[in-house]
Design brief:
single chain; mainly alpha; three-stranded parallel sheet; about 55% helix
Length: about 180
């Protein structure tokens, strides 16, 4: 597995992230008067809070085998869905799982930063990540506080603007998917 293959995977992921940002921006028009900000993960990673939250997630991954297995299952589920849609990976399966696990840990740390900074609700382009559902259900008590108490809206599940009643003072954030 060469660096070039991981580089190709990164380029493909960034392209997909641009499409997701456009999807979120289009959906934002359904909520006039509500402050919506799209925060690419690259901006979140640059914050001091990200490093601290990354360390918490990394420690949880190393110390809790159930959490570690959940990250792997979530990565494998994503890759299975990706393949079932007729898409081809730029890297071999083991590398793809490793990259997705790293991405998931980045997402978890990023979600922690978003909520730590006072963003009450996040909007995510796809379904809720299984590992995040398990955290919300209390399965991992050592998970960062902000992950256990977040509110997420999956654009995949919002079918009509009337299905969602959101107070106008709420603020929203979304990280850019890169896996």
């Amino acid at each position: 597995m060469g660096v070039g293959e991981e580089g190709n995977a990164t380029v493909l992921a960034l392209d997909r992230g641009k499409v997701q940002i456009e999807t979120i921006a289009d959906a934002a028009h359904a909520f006039p008067g509500i402050q919506i900000e799209i925060l690419p993960i690259s901006k979140i990673i640059a914050t001091p809070e990200f490093g601290r939250n990354w360390s918490w997630i990394e420690e949880l991954d190393q110390s809790n085998s159930d959490f570690s297995k959940s990250l792997t299952r979530t990565a494998q589920q994503y890759l299975k869905t990706y393949s079932s849609q007729g898409r081809h990976r730029a890297v071999d399966h083991d590398t793809a799982v490793r990259l997705c696990r790293r991405y998931l840990k980045e997402e978890l740390a990023a979600f922690s930063v978003i909520h730590e900074r006072g963003w009450l609700i996040d909007v995510y382009p796809g379904p809720e990540l299984p590992v995040l559902l398990e955290i919300a259900q209390g399965k991992y008590p050592d998970a960062p506080y902000f992950l256990k108490n977040r509110i997420s809206i999956s654009l995949e599940h919002v079918r009509h603007e009337s299905a969602l009643h959101i107070p106008s003072e709420a603020r929203y954030a979304s990280s850019q998917p890169t896996c």
